[in-house]
Amino acid sequence: MTCFHLRNSVVPGQRGNAALLGHNYYEGRAVFKFIVKLRKGDRVIVRLSKGKTVTCHVSKNPRNVRNPSESEVASWYDPYIKGRHLNLITCGDPQGGGVYLATTVVQTSCGQPR
Is residue 93 within 8 Å of residue 24, measured between CB atoms? Predict the structure, then answer.
């Protein structure tokens, strides 16, 4: 299962904000299927190309954001923020029939790639 790296965000493990987008449901298989079960302190491991991995820890419980402002969305992938961060982003607040009313965001802090 794969996800999409948001252009203009840094690569996970680099300084700044990285953002990964993915499905939480797609024919029963999706990279973020269990994203809402993550909790503060949980570990997230990202496998990069060339065999390196980045270990991140959830810094905030998942939250559903309805109608986020442009500045809030931009903050999810701001490459100039201090530290190493990864934001996992998917559809949230499912209403059935493929309708979602929010965006689910999980914020993490990461180490360096190994």
Answer: no
